[in-house]
Every structure is written in structure tokens, then in C-alpha cells.
Design a protein that fits this description.
With 312 residues, the chain is an alpha/beta fold. It is built from 9 helices and 17 strands. The protein has an 8-stranded mixed beta sheet, with helices on both faces. Helix 2 packs across helix 3. The protein is globular. The chain binds adenosine-5'-diphosphate and magnesium ion (MG). The site of magnesium ion has 3 residues, from loops. Belongs to the carbamate kinase family. Pathway: Metabolic intermediate metabolism; carbamoyl phosphate degradation; CO(2) and NH(3) from carbamoyl phosphate: step 1/1.
């Protein structure tokens, strides 16, 4: 089966040091799927990592004005590079441990968004460090940055989160996959770009990694989208009285549950919406949300939450 795996924050951790250790654990369930004969493409998030890179430039610019302003698209590209390095390094080691002869590499990936996406009128995604009101006012005058007050902790820059439309490097991913190679792609949701004549132009924005992974799975004509996160299953009444862990979510109940507010925006909701979009995109496409540790059991139908469209 052709599987797109979307790795969440818990596969990579919150710091560089943590990541170096965690990726070797995260490699195991991924290689289990490869060992079972599946074709696997790996996507991942980058929230803490791109935040770290962005903060490092911001902080150094505060004391040294000769440091250039580094656009967010470039920070995103840097995060794809070093996360990809850690993942391909750890997965290769695990492949060699099991005598599996496969090569793995990372593609710096651009994802096309619509310049007129309504998200551009309403930036919501906080990135980078916290500023005082005075600093935020000064920076927003010097740059075109938009700042919002974040839960009493200070002012933070926000960027838009547009929806992915297409993956620029998808043909390359397909070719590599057909030739039995493993690919890490759309890291951090991909670098958002829009097309202006023959040129792709990077934008200061963040594409949700769950949506980008679903788009990738659709474009690669994958059978399965597996979203690996910190929970084994999706729940309704999550963390509340009446909590119920679901093994299956059918498309009709999804909309009802979304309306009833069962899935937290910014964490579970994008996964559910991405899973639904993938399952609806073509007959035979299945999405699975489960934990990293349970990936292999999940694909055997033993655990996790399955989202498939039985009506198509
Ligand atoms: P990732 O880094 O994998 O994207 P997130 O933290 O963004 O992870 O989202 C996963 C988290 O969503 C879970 O760890 C859980 O705390 C939270 N969550 C919110 N609503 C639900 C729900 N209805 N069922 C299960 N988990 C939920
Ligand atoms: Mg998330």
C-alpha cells in the first residue's frame, strides 16, 4: 500500500537535543511499515523548530543591525533541512539495523497556495518570541509584521495559515517512490509559495502540516494517510465527562461532532478536517489517526481512529 505518514510534534520533540534522541524512536514504527512491504512517504510538522530559527534571527537582529531580516519562508526551508537530516539519518540507521536496502532523502518542498486565500486577511498563527507593546508597535512600523496580544503573555507576530493547493515537487516524489526510495517531504506543511508568471514566490505564512500531508497523499494517489500524534485514538468529549474513544468516524458524524466542538482548533480539528478531505477525495482512500507507537497495529486495523467514506 502507498502510505503518507504525517509526523506530529511528539515525534520530534521541542528542542534540538530532544529531537536527536526522539527521531531514533520515531524511526522504528516507520521502518515497521516499510518492512511490512508498504511504500512510505514521510511528512512532518515544524512548529518548535521554525520558531527556534525565527527567534534566533530576531534576537540577534536586536543587538546587531547588520544581521539581515530572514523571511519566514527561508526559516521554514532551514527547518525542513535540519529536521530532514535528523529523520533521514535515524531512519537509515534503522533500515541498516534490519538489513533493508533502501535509500532515503529529504526534498525541500514548496506548496502552492492561493494569493487570494481569505486566510491572508486574517493572520492567526503565532510565530516567534514575545514582545512588549512598545517593541511590537515599533517593529510593525519598521516591517509589515502584524502583532497580536497572546493570552496575557505579551505580543507575538502572527502569520496567515492558507490552505495548500498543490505540491510543486510532487512529480519528483512520485518518481523516487516508484524507484523504491524513501522520501521526506512537505516538512512543516511545506514552504508556501504562489505563482507569478514562471516564478514561485515564497510568502510569510504557515501551512498546517495536517492539510499539507492530506494534499500530498491526494496528489500521490496514496491509499492511506496516517496522522501520527500523541493520542492513540480520537475522542468525543475529550478530557471531559462522557469521554469516548472512537475506532471509526464516518463522514456524516464528523460534521456533527465538529459543530458540537469535540475537536480542539489548532490540534485535533485540522487532523479531522484533513482526514475527511482525503477520504472524500476518491474511493478507497482511508485516513488513520493514531499514536506513533501504535502505527503498525493501526494499519493492521487493530487500533486508532479510521476515517473512510463508505458511501463513495
Ligand atoms: P501534533 O503535533 O501531532 O499535530 P497536536 O498537539 O497539534 O499534535 O494535536 C494532538 C492533540 O490534540 C492530542 O495530543 C490531544 O491532546 C488533542 N486533542 C484535542 N481534541 C481531541 C480529541 N477530540 N480527541 C483526541 N485528542 C484531542
Ligand atoms: Mg498539530
Amino acid at each position: 500500500m502507498k502510505i503518507v505518514i504525517a509526523l506530529g510534534g511528539n515525534a520530534l520533540g521541542n528542542s534540538l537535543k530532544e529531537q536527536l534522541q526522539l527521531v531514533r524512536q520515531s524511526a522504528k514504527p516507520i521502518v515497521d511499515l516499510i518492512e511490512a512491504g508498504h511504500d512510505v512517504v514521510i511528512a512532518h510538522g515544524n512548529g518548535p523548530q521554525v520558531g527556534m530559527i525565527n527567534n534566533a534571527f530576531e534576537e540577534s537582529r536586536k543587538s546587531n543591525s547588520s544581521i539581515p531580516e530572514v523571511p519566514f519562508a527561508e526559516c521554514n526551508a532551514m527547518s525542513q533541512g535540519y529536521i530532514g537530516f535528523h529523520l533521514q539519518n535515524a531512519i537509515r540507521e534503522e533500515l541498516e539495523n534490519r538489513n533493508i536496502n533502501k535509500s532515503i532523502g529529504t526534498i525541500i518542498t514548496q506548496v502552492i497556495v492561493d494569493k487570494d486565500d481569505p486566510a491572508f486577511n486574517n493572520p492567526t498563527k503565532p510565530i516567534g518570541g514575545f514582545y512588549s507593546k512598545e517593541e511590537a508597535d515599533r517593529l510593525s512600523q519598521e516591517t509589515s509584521y502584524i502583532f497580536v496580544e497572546d493570552s496575557g503573555r505579551g505580543y507575538r507576530r502572527v502569520v496567515p495559515s492558507p490552505k495548500p493547493i498543490d505540491i510543486v515537487e510532487k512529480d519528483m516524489v512520485t518518481t523516487l517512490l516508484e524507484n523504491n526510495h524513501l522520501v521526506i517531504t512537505v516538512g512543516g506543511g511545506g514552504i508556501p509559495v504562489y505563482k507569478d508568471n514562471n516564478r514561485f514566490i515564497g510568502i510569510d505564512a504557515v501551512i498546517d502540516k495536517d492539510f499539507a500531508s492530506a494534499k500530498l497523499a491526494e496528489k500521490l494517489d496514496a491509499n492511506y494517510l496516517i496522522i501520527l500524534t500523541a493520542v492513540e485514538k480520537v475522542a468525543i468529549n475529550f478530557g471531559k465527562e462522557g469521554e469516548k474513544w472512537l475506532s471509526r468516524l464516518d463522514i456524516e458524524s464528523i460534521d456533527k461532532y465538529i459543530d458540537e466542538g469535540h475537536f480542539a482548533p489548532g490540534s485535533m480539528l485540522p487532523k479531522i478536517e484533513a482526514a475527511k478531505a482525503f477520504a472524500l477525495s476518491k474511493k478507497g482512500r482511508t485516513a488513520l489517526i493514531t499514536s506513533l507507537e501504535k502505527a503498525s497495529q493501526g494499519i493492521r486495523g487493530e487500533t486508532g481512529t479510521i476515517i473512510e467514506n463508505c458511501k463513495l
